[in-house]
Design a protein that fits this description.
The structure is a homodimer of 302-residue chains.
Chain A: E1 3-6, E2 10-16, E3 19-26, H1 28-36, E4 42-48, H2 54-57, E5 65-66, E6 70-72, E7 79-84, E8 91-97, E9 117-120, H3 125-133, E10 140-144, H4 147-152, H5 154-161, E11 166-170, H6 171-178, H7 183-192, E12 197-201, E13 207-211, E14 214-218, H8 232-246, H9 252-269, H10 276-280, H11 283-297
Parallel strand pairs in A: 1-4, 1-9, 2-7, 4-5, 4-6, 9-10, 10-11, 11-12
Antiparallel strand pairs in A: 2-3, 7-8, 12-13, 13-14
Helix pairs in contact in A: 1-8, 3-5, 6-7, 8-9, 9-11
């Protein structure tokens, strides 16, 4: 099952207590694609400017990532700048130069229309729906969003959510979307909007997943050094959906394994700037850390 | 193995979005004792004033809780008042009337001196050590503390920690005690101070435990209604140490089960004011929720 992903491919300039990375590869679709590509072929739909270099494209090469849908247009590539606090627990956005991303209208290449899985990255919910309309018969549709759309386009977002099976958002977004502080109540409200599966990302506190079968809680991997958390949520989504699309079934057990795979990939993402760690990562390392998650969480019956 | 616990027995006046409870039974040793008494006999060392009523004592009756060490002295019982935010995620202390607790000098009855397990509740580290000196040969010593002692009595606290096997504190306290924001680094630093086992309580985000064998992560039970979280941390400690003292061994597997038992008891504590839910709780309900924790966290190998 191949995944079509639509989202941003960007330059990031990131300051952490460990140093600064200038104009390195970023963007939700970049992190998602590389993470998912460990498991299934990925078809990327995004836009970059004339300044986007071969060096950045190299991240996608030698991987099953189809770049036919990566549009290159006149202007500059989306550039985000942020600075993390000393404890890496909060960050300040220094600038958001949307550039060519401001007028992004996803164009789905003909060859992508048969994609069986779709990941709608965090873009205008109207555009998310237009993408979906161009895909013939996706079996698996997952979606991200953010406060900007929850506040600014609530009706459009609701319409999109009706067509989505899996929604991946963070705890603040789940609360805002539902109007409920308590996450169990928030999950019930959000799941009534369409997505049968809600994945609530809580950063260093792990993930809660709500499905028809109940609730699943996974911790984050206790990293001794969080070098740069930029992209961890998108990497989580890529690992999650990539594994799920490769699993051959999407029942509760597969969803749970997918959560742990996503958490595994996200933990590696935090170990270096940009996609640097993901690009050296091996399947054996993924399997090893997955087993560490088993050690981290196992306990016996009373 | 019976547990000697020293700490506070108090009146609490608590405001939550669901209502107000005035002068109800509270105090760290109260929650701890009732939680631990599901598993082992408890010997309580605390002080109350002349105003402490039979109604409150009733909580300890019909349970294996020895009250010989509950001193009654001239004056009023410790009274704490607090108000929770609408989301129950933060609270404001309205008043702290220490009353007889201000001059509390724990006196250990002769019959308690053979106690095999000791829980040093959150009191002056000098007093914690004096308690320990009065117990003959405890096999299991666990301890709580708080920012007030970490800041105000750092040297005395260090001296106490050298004699402790298990320290149970929250994430903010672990960070403050170690001077490290990252919890893996914080745990390494704290464990060098004495306690081979560090339990870091993260409230709604669950628990991390660090032992010689590595790290264990347990989620909090996803409650739909958190009615009143007062005492949940002390209840956790009581369930944890009570189960551990009853387990016959204190290896990593038993410690992990104890963490989940503690989390189970703490979840019940939050369902009502004061000790109300703990007082109606049955062993069967504990076993059922423990199994729910297993469902909440299980996932298969890749």
């Amino acid at each position: 099952m191949s995944i079509l992903v639509v989202g941003s491919v960007a330059y990031d300039t990131v300051e952490t207590p460990f140093g600064t990375a200038e104009r390195v590869l970023g963007g939700s679709a970049s992190f998602f694609s590389v993470a998912a590509s460990f498991f299934v072929p990925v078809r990327l739909v995004a836009v970059v400017g004339e300044d986007f270099g071969e060096e950045q494209l190299a991240a996608f090469k030698d991987r099953p990532i189809d770049l036919e849908g990566l549009e290159r247009t006149k202007g500059k590539t989306f550039h985000w700048g942020g600075k993390y606090s000393l404890d890496l627990n909060s960050r300040e956005t220094l600038f958001t130069d949307l550039n060519v991303f401001e007028f992004f209208k996803p164009k789905i290449p003909a060859a992508y229309r048969t994609s069986e899985a779709v990941f709608l990255g965090n873009i205008d919910p109207v555009l998310q729906r237009q993408v979906l309309e161009q895909v013939e018969k996706p079996q698996l549709v997952a979606c991200d969003t953010m406060n900007f759309w929850i506040d600014g386009q609530p009706d459009e977002l609701r319409e999109t959510l009706r067509q989505v099976q899996i929604l991946l958002i963070n705890d603040a977004e789940a609360r805002e979307l539902s109007g409920e502080w308590n996450l169990v109540k928030a999950a019930r409200a959000v799941r009534k909007m369409g997505p049968r599966t809600l994945v609530v990302k809580k950063g260093e506190h792990g993930v809660l997943m709500f499905t028809d079968e109940g609730c699943f809680a996974a911790p984050a991997y206790p990293l001794e050094t969080v070098f740069d958390p930029t992209g961890a949520g998108d990497t989580f989504a890529g690992g999650f959906l990539g594994y799920l699309a490769s699993a051959g079934e999407q029942g509760d057990a597969a969803l749970r394994r997918a959560i742990v795979v996503g958490s595994t990939l996200a933990s590696f993402c935090c170990e270096a700037f940009s996609l640097d760690r993901l690009l050296t990562l091996t399947r054996r390392e993924i399997d090893e850390r997955y087993r560490e998650f088993q050690d981290l969480t196992r306990f016996e019956s009373l």
